Amino acid sequence: MIIDTLTGAEPNPFYPAAIRKALRAIIHQEPHTLPAGKYTVDGDTIFFNVVEGETRLLAGLRPEYHRQYIDIHIVLAGEEIIGAGNRGLEIVEDGAFNTAQDIGFCTQISSETLIHLHPGELAVLFPGELHRPMGSLGAGAPLRKIIVKVDVGLV
Question: Which superkingdom heads the taxonomic lineage of this protein's source (predicted)?
């Protein structure tokens, strides 16, 4: 996982080209003005969703993971706590993996780190890294964010 800012990550030469391409596309579309919905950058290999919702108490959220796509969570307005665990932690599945949606859930994150994102900040989560997005440590609050999907085959 990587924690950064949208404007700092986009020009960073250490990021794979596909990630920089996705971030560049978002910046050029003025993300704060985009309505909620799905946006395509490069077919099914790079796309993003603008999401408006409410954070929920982190303790009540199920950890999730992906196999095909890298997730990039970018906060536009509000604050988000993401519980995350590094790749390689044991995954105790909580139901069958949904291949069509590239999402699986598990019962816990055994060694969890809390990522606190503010507007303009992002977290990159790679396939197999457990995470609990849309979280808060207290009462829920409005959150506007972007979730980018980059096919791991591009990196």
Answer: Bacteria
CA trace torsion 20, 47, 32, 15 (10° rounding): -20
Domain that holds residue 150: 2-154
Domain harbouring 103, CATH code: 2.60.120.370
Note the pLDDT of residue 128: 93
Q: DSSP for 15-58, please give it.
A: S-HHHHHHHHHHHHT-GGGPPSEEEEEETTTEEEEEEEEE-EEG
Predicted local confidence at residue 92, as pLDDT: 85
Burial of 51 (0-12, 13-18, 19+ CB in 10 A): middle
* Per-position DSSP letters for 81-103, written without gaps between them: EEEE--TT----BSS--BTTTTB
- Band of the pLDDT at 72, cuts 50, 70, 90? very high
